[in-house]
């Protein structure tokens, strides 16, 4: 089924690759994503305007998850894609989405993540989008999110969140740090100019220290979501490619003596 989140990520990849034969596919993805924006400025994963909350309260509602309302993580990815493309005509679309994200920010500075666990995932997704869209890094929305991510870093330098955060509606620390979530937090911080922040460097040290002799990282926890509070998913690649992504980005920024992340993702 057509997936908004995946389309945005693939579109960013093809655009960054820059090959002329990808231009038509990127443009088709752009037009489709613009057309999938909901009236409130956000994007859902598969549908637009699918947000009639009363339907989740009928007796036969499937896990209380009949709907596909806009969420911060998917909205962030769409902003990142459209901002990376840089079409001036899409700016009103992006501005509506930024207003949606501003309204959705939690009191503690984080954002809810529907498709990955949970507030760490959502906050990373949004920070990448805010950077791509040109939101100043000293904007209070950004500063609050950075402060929250730094505040929940664990003593070993990593980050880890438990699925119980979906049950309780607030961040719940996992029993141990997780490579994938550590990478998400690092990527979010680096996106908004924090590559030399001690928290990022401690996260990198955690990833380097926990990498196995075979080059892999291990984690047992579920890292993604089917239906919140009902069942969760484990994407086995997350423990590998997200740490590689974070460490590679940090290395590239350090080599270039730069804090600027120039891409949407």
TrEMBL record:
Database matches in InterPro entries: SQ_cyclase_C, Squalene_cyclase, Terpenoid_cyclase/PrenylTrfase
Recorded family membership: Belongs to the terpene cyclase/mutase family.
Record's keyword terms, sorted: Repeat
Domain (Squalene cyclase C-terminal): residue spans on this chain: 1-251
Annotated GO CC locations: lipid droplet
Lineage, highest ranks first: Bacteria, Pseudomonadati, Pseudomonadota, Alphaproteobacteria, Hyphomicrobiales
A molecular function (GO) term: intramolecular transferase activity
Residues passing through the membrane, by range: none
Gene Ontology BP term (one): triterpenoid biosynthetic process
Pathway involvement of the protein, from the record: Secondary metabolite biosynthesis; hopanoid biosynthesis
Annotated protein name in UniProt: Squalene--hopene cyclase
């Amino acid at each position: 089924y057509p997936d908004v989140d995946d389309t945005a990520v693939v579109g960013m990849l093809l655009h960054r690759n820059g090959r002329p034969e990808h231009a038509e596919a990127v443009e088709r993805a752009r037009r489709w994503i613009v057309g999938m924006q909901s009236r409130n400025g956000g994007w859902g994963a598969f549908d637009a305007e699918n947000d009639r909350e009363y339907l989740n309260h009928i007796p036969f509602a499937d896990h209380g998850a009949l709907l596909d309302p806009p969420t911060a993580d998917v909205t962030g990815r769409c902003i990142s894609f459209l901002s990376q493309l840089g079409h001036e005509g899409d700016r009103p679309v992006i501005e509506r989405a930024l207003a949606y994200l501003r309204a959705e920010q939690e009191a503690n500075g984080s954002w809810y993540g529907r498709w990955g666990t949970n507030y760490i995932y959502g906050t990373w997704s949004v920070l990448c989008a805010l950077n791509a869209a040109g939101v100043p890094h000293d904007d209070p929305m950004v500063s609050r999110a950075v402060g929250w991510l730094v505040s929940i870093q664990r003593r070993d330098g990593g980050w880890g969140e438990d699925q119980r955060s979906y049950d309780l509606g607030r961040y719940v620390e996992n029993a141990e740090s997780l490579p994938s979530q550590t990478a998400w937090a690092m990527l979010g911080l680096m996106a908004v100019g924090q590559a030399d922040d001690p928290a990022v460097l401690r996260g990198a040290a955690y990833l380097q220290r926990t990498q196995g002799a075979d080059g892999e990282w291990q984690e047992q926890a579920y890292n993604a979501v089917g239906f919140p509070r009902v069942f969760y998913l484990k994407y086995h690649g997350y423990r590998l490619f997200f740490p590689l992504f974070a460490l590679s980005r940090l290395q590239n920024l350090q080599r270039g003596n730069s804090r600027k992340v120039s891409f949407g993702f």
